[in-house]
Fold:
Amino acid sequence: MSRRYLGAVPDSYHHGDLPAALRAATAELVTERGPTGFSLREVARRAGVSHAAPAHHFGDAKGLLTSVAIEGFQKLADALTEATEGIDDAALRLTACGRAYVRTAQAFPGHFGVIFQEDMVDPTNQEWLEAGLSAYMVLYETISVVRDQLNPSLDVDTAATLSWAAMQGLVVLASKLTVVAKSTGAEVVPLDDLIERFTRITIEGMRAR
Amino acid sequence: MSRRYLGAVPDSYHHGDLPAALRAATAELVTERGPTGFSLREVARRAGVSHAAPAHHFGDAKGLLTSVAIEGFQKLADALTEATEGIDDAALRLTACGRAYVRTAQAFPGHFGVIFQEDMVDPTNQEWLEAGLSAYMVLYETISVVRDQLNPSLDVDTAATLSWAAMQGLVVLASKLTVVAKSTGAEVVPLDDLIERFTRITIEGMRAR
DNA sequence: GCTCTAAGTGGACATTGTAAAGATAATGGT
DNA sequence: ACCATTATCTTTACAATGTCCACTTAGAGC
Structure:
């Protein structure tokens, strides 16, 4: 008997859906031990298969990690889409984007520990590029709304890049913020609130012409 | 005869300044192969010492990487300090900060590949925390100037965090921007110019009350 | 000059990623 | 229904890695 994941066919020679199980185990492992703690053999163990099984589906370790990264971008794109649906006001919409971004990153730390780790994924993988792009497009759409409502001469590309950078940067910095706040004596602001403050500043900046 | 680095005493049993040589070799290796490509034994080889030598100075691999991360933060703090020196205008100063940040990241990719990789460094290391904090403080100082000149009621902590996040995020996203631009048909903007556009937006946002 | 300690070496061991060859189950054609 | 083919998974093997240990070498201090 061994641990198995989604779509498992217990105690059968064939797994059922090993690729998905391996992705899940990878995300779990990276969540626990960080990107560096990833190990193909440990992942195989957690999925209840031999250490050589992953190779048949993903080629090598980088292939598996790339697949996880793609899944991460898809989760992000879905979250951003769902979060902005039905919101008309530009500022509210951008805030919703930011919240969704940070929350997705916190909900799937295993995936987010990999998506921008360019040496862990195959940077030439088309799916990975497209998955990232389609997540970006959701944000781009929201910035377009900002342009339409607040400033017709807004450079949407620049503003979208800035928003993305600020969100991803915040995710990376998050753990350091508490330490910094303790040293500077500043209040510790919850990420959700911080996102709102970020949005307030950037929205005002985008409004100006 | 073996490759040696700074402070080397050729062909002597003792190295001269092995810690510095190991840091340099680490930065070089991470630059070539990315954070994942780091290997303690390869670093030792490049420094011309046996594979067990690093342990006497840094304990384990994480100790060495932490030391490199500290060096990275120091380089950043120095660059930010130098870049802002003598600049009085708030907007120009913030732009200079951004430029210095991105340029330092590009000049020392080995260091920047490690500084925020929390699973590769010892997150309890006091020097690492302090080095990061002192780099942040240079930025904080600049945002204080923004407050003094443009908006006395500006929340400096929030604005400084936003600026840092945007810069670090931009560094991470940089390699994807070209791809995105190719897909959206947008122009490929040099990072230096992008930083200026970022600054223009955020400065306007900070000015608003 | 002698001892003590810091600095570096060499070997051992468990763990890792990948490759190759073998075993097992499912599939598809007749 | 049967057989061959193929996809899936296992086993074995090998080189490389990080850390530990015992050993050697060189400086520093008395």
